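PROTOCOL LOG
Step 1. Enter all chains and additional molecules of the complex.
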Amino acid sequence: MKTAKDGVFSTLLVLSVVTFAVLIAFVFLRVPEAQPQAGGLAQKIFYFHVPAAYAMYLSAVVGFVASALYLYRATDARDAWAQAGAECAVCFGTLVLTSGPLWAKKAWGVYWTWEPRLTTLLLTVLVYAAVVMLRTFSASGEAERRFAAALTVLGTVTLPIVHYSVKKWGGNHPTVIREGGGGLGHPDMKTALWLGFFAMTLLAAVLIWSRARLALTSHRLNALEERVAADGLGEAA
Amino acid sequence: MSAAQPGAAPTARSMEFQPVQGGQETTSAEALLVAAYLVMWVLVFGFLAMSWRRQGRLEARVGDLERTIDGGKAPRP
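Step 2. Run joint prediction.
Step 3. Record the structure below.
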């Protein structure tokens, strides 16, 4: 039976697909090519690279809130949302870490350089990857869940460091959105970026929600299996 | 393109695109752009495929559970 939640989820999914289609068409057909210093045509990677980084922050914040609440009072739902947040943070973080180097190759001449933002971002994604590994390959007991929640909270502490690393330590990574940074000279570039933020928000909502639902279903199934085992139904069969 | 000035203030250095010392730009922008979009969609669809597989495993467990419950309810000989 379809519920109101299913309806909202389907609407988000359809809206996400449509927004991405519009974004891609807009970026390739309307947005002008950037200056050579920004990578020229390769700068078009920017319109999903930056929104993907924002989606990673969003996922991490969901993971952080759910983990903090779980540490305060443990429930299956909180654990499921914490797990989903960490998984999506890894997904979007990987997107950022793969699209960035491809753009950097054109703008900087190298795929990777150990400058502050890249290094801190890599470390953050590795923290969330550790959380996902822990949840995937260890038992699903209370101790593992609490440890993963604490690790997720720790991962979130690194986010402000990633965000302010450019301002604090400089490096090659540019500040292109605020404070007069180069890269968004044309109004269509700004429109494309905001469209990218909107599309990634929808995608993040769809992915986080679906992963949380999966995790929650898994928890309910575990509980049901334990009840069946306790009732001795399995032995009777 | 100007190279990064080590003595410049962090904010000033972070406002523009700067080449890395010794870096060479020889790859075509088109190839990099296509690669980036491909990687992005492969990652997103890979993530969806993982979710789909996990859903499949859960459904298999539900099936096992249903069979167990049905077996348990069957009249004993």
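Step 4. Note key features.
Chain B has two helices and no strands.
Residues 1-14 of chain B have pLDDT under 50 and may be disordered.
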